[in-house]
């Protein structure tokens, strides 16, 4: 995790974030100066940012919107106050509507980013200045400290080459907090095909089977927001186990980048929120699934079923059966 400290100072009306990166200053600066890179980590998990305008010049503005998994939106606008590449950046960050018009009665903050070379890479010190104690308290109450930590945990995947970051590491599980986990898997293939493999029944049936010895007996996909999906599996031959399935509703479909759906075991009331994101770089696609559970006990119970191992078996089959024939190598 790059964040080493987050602290607030009520007397000086500041919040300070210190983070260390295993990358040179120039590489870190590039991540903060390119909206396509910045939007991969500016919002916390489940709230990815999209920068809709970008003018990184003194007096210029950048606008962005963070999109929550249930359709929530939160937008902001930066005004660039100082730029000294690659070591210093200063912006005024304020709440705005999606067109970039500032919102009244919401706090703004002046953010200073300083980047310094270290033997291990780069240290960033980000100091946010507030106009009043009330503004600082409001931002903290909105979850800024924890949100910053979770957002910054995503930057390692940005600073490294995608294959260097994830290739050969299989399906990885990260416990974010008591109710959220993040699962990542790199597959060698174009994002558009990976998207289709997750949303078209004729492709889903070929790979989303878990360990060998199981077959998918029912596959109903949701093609529009609000529609329901339903998948059922059963053991083949002498394979032990009983038939089971999952169902849910599509809350967001943004092909070929992001889909959000609810999920529950057929016949059970417990429901999770599954947020699928696909990012492609140099012909490889990073699959990221953020799962929200109702509580820690449910999270631990589901993970104990061997879910991650089953997902790895499915991803390996996705590579063999769908992506390799398209020209990728497993």
Give me some keywords for this one.
single chain; 330 residues; alpha+beta; Alpha-D-Glucose-1,6-Bisphosphate, Chain A, domain 4; 2 domains; eight-stranded antiparallel β-sheet; 10 helices; 16 strands; 42% strand; elongated; START-like_dom_sf
Descriptive overview:
With 330 residues, this protein is an alpha+beta fold. The chain folds into two domains: 3-155, START domain (Alpha-D-Glucose-1,6-Bisphosphate, Chain A, domain 4), CATH 3.30.530; 163-326, Alpha-D-Glucose-1,6-Bisphosphate, Chain A, domain 4. Helices cover 25% and strands 42% of the residues. It has helices at residues 25-33, 35-38, 133-141, 144-152, 156-159, 162-166, 191-199, 201-207, 296-303, 307-323, and strands spanning 3-9, 14-21, 49-54, 61-67, 73-84, 88-96, 108-118, 121-130, 172-177, 180-187, 214-220, 228-235, 244-254, 258-265, 271-281, 284-292. It has an eight-stranded antiparallel beta sheet with strand order 1-2-8-7-6-5-4-3. Strands 9-10-16-15-14-13-12-11 form an eight-stranded antiparallel beta sheet. A hairpin with a 2-residue loop joins strand 15 (271-281) and strand 16 (284-292). The longest helix has 17 residues, at 307-323. The radius of gyration is 22 Å and the shape is elongated. The two termini are 29 Å apart. InterPro entries: ASHA1/2-like_C, START-like_dom_sf. Pfam families: AHSA1. Belongs to the AHA1 family.
